[in-house]
Amino acid sequence: MAFNDLFLRACRLEPVEMTPVWMMRQAGRFLATYRALRKKADFLTMCKTPELAAQATLLPIDELGVDAAILFSDILIPVEAMGMALDFTPAPVFAEPIRSEKQIQALRIPDPEESVPFVLEAIRILRRELTDRVPLIGFSGAPFTLATYMVEGSGSKNFIEVKRLMYQEPDLFAALMEKITETDTRYLNAQIAAGAQAVQIFDTWGGILTPEDYETYALPYTKEVIDGLNRDGVPVIHYVGTGSALLPLIKTAGSDVVGIDWRIRIDEARRILGPDTAVQGNFDPTALFAPVPEIQRRVKEILHRAGDAPGHIFNLGHGILPPTPEDHAKALIDAVHTYSRK
Ligand code: CP3
């Protein structure tokens, strides 16, 4: 088999013979084979066992025919390495959330080779296994999204704790963000050195901020991470959940590709981002519960709106949901390839 570089070419705004597609959270519970693998080990054990992480990464490549692999891991793995005890239930929980200066001072800025060697080993295994197949994407959480989990201790509805810290103790918040930013930069550079061929920064919760707060409290740190990457030939994808209203600001962070959700039409997003930024998205993950012809209609609509200019990577606007029918996910991938082929 010849190496499929459609994804990398689209990231670099080069012409492609069909639109590449992958799905955020494609290595996950909607796949029966993933659920079977998960019976053997809990989620954190899977993340920390390179052979298992590699196996999970490959499932959607074998079963769905996606054009890129994303490392099986979690955005909170480097946060555990900073010194915070982490549990998944399956949602992430930090038993001792960050609420004081003392706790922020105690956080480490870990060396990835020492603290998360399993991530780097999984990447090395995967590069061997994917030689004649598809590119491998590494990833991290954006500093702001990691801070929300560290300060809230878990997911949240209104994010009052992290906002309390932000608004009441801006210097402490900045000290926390600086440590996360440094950790994140080292972590992504270690993934690139180990062989990640692109990296995605997930700012799942960036969209809970007003544009002004996003510009003050989140954007500068993500920009610092991006500026600190050894990105020679390695595209950087920047995804901000519920971020459509922030696109003009997101563009200034300087990624090669911007990930968009489904709350904006993709032609509008491309107009805001301009011709030098590729765009990834923007299928509504809940539309995968619609009948297959409706899924196909929506795929056509996004492809049509994305236009002929290079630089579209088809994806969902957020992670695929665990109850998604597998055959609907497969129908989406096939529809993208069929309708976009030149
Ligand atoms: O995309 C992939 O398939 C690669 C693997 C991956 C996981 N998490 C595996 C996972 C990636 C890229 C992530 C990123 C991640 N993790 C994000 C950003 C993306 C997003 O969805 O917004 C966030 C916010 C997290 C934190 C996290 N991890 C949550 C909120 C949860 C629980 C909710 C859920 O969807 O399960 C997890 C657990 C998790 N991460 C699972 C997987 C496969 C399920 C764990 C299990 O198997 O029990």
Topology (SSEs and partners):
Elements: H1 6-11, H2 32-38, H3 43-48, H4 50-64, E1 69-70, H5 77-81, E2 86-88, E3 92-94, H6 101-106, H7 112-115, H8 117-129, E4 136-141, H9 143-152, H10 160-168, H11 170-194, E5 198-203, H12 211-227, E6 236-240, H13 247-251, E7 257-259, H14 266-273, E8 278-283, H15 292-306, E9 312-316, H16 326-340
Parallel strand pairs: 1-4, 4-5, 5-6, 6-7, 7-8, 8-9
Antiparallel strand pairs: 2-3
Helix pairs in contact: 4-8, 9-10, 9-11, 10-11, 11-12, 15-16
This protein binds coproporphyrinogen III (CP3).
Keywords:
TIM Barrel; 16 helices; globular; 7-stranded parallel β-sheet; alpha/beta; 342 residues; two-stranded antiparallel ribbon; binds coproporphyrinogen III
